[in-house]
Amino acid sequence: MITVSIIGGTGYTGVELLRILSNHPKVEIEHITSRKLDGKGITKVHTNLKGIGNLDNLIFKDVPIENIDSDFVFCATPHGVSMEIVPKLYERDIKIIDLSGDYRFENINIYEEWYNLKHTGKLRSIYGLPEIHREDIKKEKLVANPGCFPTGAILLLAPLIKEGIVEDRIIIDSKTGVSGAGINPSNTTHFPNINENILPYKLTTHRHTPEIEEELKKISNRNVKISFTPHLAPITRGILTTAHTFLNESMERDDIIGIYNSFYKKEPFIRIFCEEIPKLTGVRGTNFCDIGAFEIDRYGRLVMVSTIDNLVKGASGQGVQNMNIMAGFKETEGLLFGGLMP
Amino acid sequence: MITVSIIGGTGYTGVELLRILSNHPKVEIEHITSRKLDGKGITKVHTNLKGIGNLDNLIFKDVPIENIDSDFVFCATPHGVSMEIVPKLYERDIKIIDLSGDYRFENINIYEEWYNLKHTGKLRSIYGLPEIHREDIKKEKLVANPGCFPTGAILLLAPLIKEGIVEDRIIIDSKTGVSGAGINPSNTTHFPNINENILPYKLTTHRHTPEIEEELKKISNRNVKISFTPHLAPITRGILTTAHTFLNESMERDDIIGIYNSFYKKEPFIRIFCEEIPKLTGVRGTNFCDIGAFEIDRYGRLVMVSTIDNLVKGASGQGVQNMNIMAGFKETEGLLFGGLMP
Amino acid sequence: MITVSIIGGTGYTGVELLRILSNHPKVEIEHITSRKLDGKGITKVHTNLKGIGNLDNLIFKDVPIENIDSDFVFCATPHGVSMEIVPKLYERDIKIIDLSGDYRFENINIYEEWYNLKHTGKLRSIYGLPEIHREDIKKEKLVANPGCFPTGAILLLAPLIKEGIVEDRIIIDSKTGVSGAGINPSNTTHFPNINENILPYKLTTHRHTPEIEEELKKISNRNVKISFTPHLAPITRGILTTAHTFLNESMERDDIIGIYNSFYKKEPFIRIFCEEIPKLTGVRGTNFCDIGAFEIDRYGRLVMVSTIDNLVKGASGQGVQNMNIMAGFKETEGLLFGGLMP
Amino acid sequence: MITVSIIGGTGYTGVELLRILSNHPKVEIEHITSRKLDGKGITKVHTNLKGIGNLDNLIFKDVPIENIDSDFVFCATPHGVSMEIVPKLYERDIKIIDLSGDYRFENINIYEEWYNLKHTGKLRSIYGLPEIHREDIKKEKLVANPGCFPTGAILLLAPLIKEGIVEDRIIIDSKTGVSGAGINPSNTTHFPNINENILPYKLTTHRHTPEIEEELKKISNRNVKISFTPHLAPITRGILTTAHTFLNESMERDDIIGIYNSFYKKEPFIRIFCEEIPKLTGVRGTNFCDIGAFEIDRYGRLVMVSTIDNLVKGASGQGVQNMNIMAGFKETEGLLFGGLMP
After folding, report:
1. Which one of B10, B12, B184, B190 makes the best mutation probe of the D interface by having the most chain D beta carbons within 10 Å?
2. What is the ipTM of this complex?
3. How big, in percent rounded to 5, are the helix, strand and coil portions of chain A?
4. pTM of this prediction?
5. Does the domain made of A2-123 have the CATH classification 3.40.50.720?
6. B236–D185 CB contact, under 8 Å
């Protein structure tokens, strides 16, 4: 049994952490902090969780970071805020899973350029994608939980990059549900603006681009040129990533499938689809990343598709997966459930 | 540990039973029958369940009823089909949860009139709404699992009816997600026909009407006149029921809330909302029935609202709740999880 | 040819007026005012109208009311703002179509109670529902354009009320698209909050209630008790109104249909549906009000359904219809087009 | 005034032709044929068109092709059916606009390979994309109306291809509304299957691929390698096309915009967006093709976006545009209206 606190429990990743952790047999939730909702009952705000475990007794509190001494802390805080909080926890040897982008980059210059923020200083951390960095995650006390788009994209491309069978120039065309834009209303998320639309945005400037690139470079030890374009779709949850790559040499579909089956052989949260195309509702509410398509066209273009739930494998679920690894629990503890389909 | 079989595992209630039961610590799934999909892997069809428990090893089989001797059998079969199958299981003392309408009615004439079918003959059974009939469910071997609309409507109205504080004439205006129409495509469920629409249907002739009426009469020992109109909404899951009733005497909102809190005091799956209006996403994927509104207008009309997930509390989840009761398990076993919101 | 100005051209009713008027052969648009967008090109904001007529040359201006002397002025201004503006136009004999609620009520006390505003003073005006008040609209210079819910509800109920064949107690359960909530984002209209939901709101307190009631009383010269409950549906445009009434005497469906066909015999914008149930997409983008259902249940409840596009017949289209009547044009001028189905 | 008949009036393109033509001042609709609906009133089936012009008097008829002698005939018939019908009309000098793929290809072998059909024989025809082939359309009597995806893709890429400033390898990632799948229900279009999903399909094998390729080759006189992947989105109408191309040489965004403004300078149905990204609701119900984005990333990838209404500019509206050209009418006659936004 471990104690866990959540800093910033009011956003979508915060409530999703509560939904998942309240179902986890080895976790006791200690604090959920919120300045704005200080004193309010958790399930008065997140009414979907009413009646679950002891959540009805939990209350949002504006707890000073200094007073938090849980075994694990999740920082469900925005970019820029995490780097103010994390160092204070870090020095007290608390295990930290940070859901922001603040500690994801080896190269701080890239962070500062794409996030347009001055960084408070690097800490020893590991990029929390267990399928790639599991052994290192076991050893670290600060995990930088991956971004939602990078999770879908890196898992989709890693085997190809590792094998070196595709050209370095890769096009990623992603489609995300609106929960990815967060809990706060805006013009873009106003129902009549997104309903019956599909909106490309930050077509060449999304800050998940360098994150994908940096991680793929680590895998291949070569430069990879990622051209990434996201689209907002009239869907609540999920990211479907379509990757367009070009094969270096002539290969058969079955060869590619073989590579993926081998690469992800023992992974409990990766499902390889040889026949059907993965669907967002198949991963809805789950920690799975489904991978499929493996289609090759007349010009050697290989099209691959992955699906994740952006709030689970793309954020909070992956955070709990990292916690399980760091705590020495079974990696799937509290995380294995089927997708809400339909 | 009990063994369970599902007859008719291809529809939405079948897959939902699998999703829930695969998460249940005391259940071993034995057979899932299907004539159409005989020989196909369960998770080849229901890809959302891939990688969960041992579901990847289960195969649809066209098993003769005679060969099924699990402790429990769920009949996820259509109206008319259940009454051919159930008697064969019944005589062998297998515990049965029938999801069709075939054994829901005390009065077979009402069934035959509204379903336009000749019944094969009544069997001793109990209407499987645990919040009303828990003690009897414990004793029976055949449970008629309630319809989706009746579940939301009866739970919404039972306290009022029991107290006798509203007029006998009640208007129920329900809004259901499209999964309620089943897994087979039709003109009505063709995306361009239901998207951007909300379709009233069977406005005065839906066969859940007499089911609601019969159950409410049992509670009050008086005639209740239910005027029920369903609408199909561009939503996948959930039923929101708006009940318009008229108070017999002047009452305050708090009195009504008090009645509900008292009536449902110990119920693990009923959540009373005093402030917010219940939302479908709050119960999505769960076995909860949320009840709220309690608003009274200038003319003594009391408006009440309930929400359920039509496939869980409105079908398969409630079936598992009944199984838990019949098997002597904790009633919430394998059934307590928060709603998938957003 | 007449000149027309629009005060408040930034909201949904403003852009919808532009969409309709730009297609009207006898209208020249003079001013579109906006404080916020002063100096911006109309079609830079409302990009859907780019390339239509001379709209690319029109610019939002913060024109003082005193400088406006078009033949007709549409006030697409919020409640409370109209009553500051309208008197200034009124005294200069400009013909005014006010889309707010400020001049809809005979009884100012009712307005002040439900809108929680002090009124600046009544002016001679007419409630702009042409199917009921056409002859008076011809004579007036200030038309109070009806609310969206009242348009659908009054047209749906008027024939029944006039004939006096239903009880005075009427339940109206309406379902509206999200554009009815206006162009400004809010928690309610945040996509993940309304998608996959249907939200009852102001269940007994919506201010369109007394508007419906007052108009129906005028028709019947009797008190009518309107119990009105709106729901927000995950749809952009349209209002579907379900009315639950109780017949005073036994009648046949065909009798009711006969009453409606007769009442609306010559109306170009009312379509009576005897077979199909009206659909929102059938009226989408149009000025039609479709009426249907006419179903009677075992207890003498008569269920009726109407559909309108809330932004057209429920607001801007009806405004143009009123303008046509006041200007002596053909009533359907610029307003007859088929619904955007699918 | 010309007379027009529609062969195959029951699908989405048929009803859309009726919606548009009923608004056209110079067209008299003569026949709408349907085997299945022979004898049924047009507006009994397409209820959205009730009350428009004289459509209430038109009746579906199973008219033999021999008996049709309108000035213009639209074949809204499926691939394979058109090539049985068109020759019979062609020999009688009727002007024909064929909405199928049967006469779109110069090279019949390509057609036979991708459509898996034996062709009945080529006829002199012109590919009906007015922005590219206007002068030739004027002279021909058989127009092959373009496919929906090709319309959006060719108009998006033509200026780049003509200028020869991008590499020959082009990736087109398209997102279409479900009306593109036609009026008949299927598993794919079943609401619970497409709602909350976005489905890639025929990822490397869609038959619009060679159509795009053939037309772009005509423009450039060079080989162009089109890699095309469509996705089905939970939207009713519209196609958003995202093109990923690579510039041959370093260029600025403004240079590209200049090329487009110049190429489409006089086109009434092409709107170039320099600031906003085009939205599907901006073209909904219209004959516009909106083009925008013009963004260049670190690796010289140029991302371009176009939006059309698949049933209007992508089918029936473009058909009427072709008819206007062939008949010597103003090209925009009956076709200029603003998008239904929101």
Report:
1. B190
2. 0.97
3. 35, 25, 45
4. 0.98
5. yes
6. no
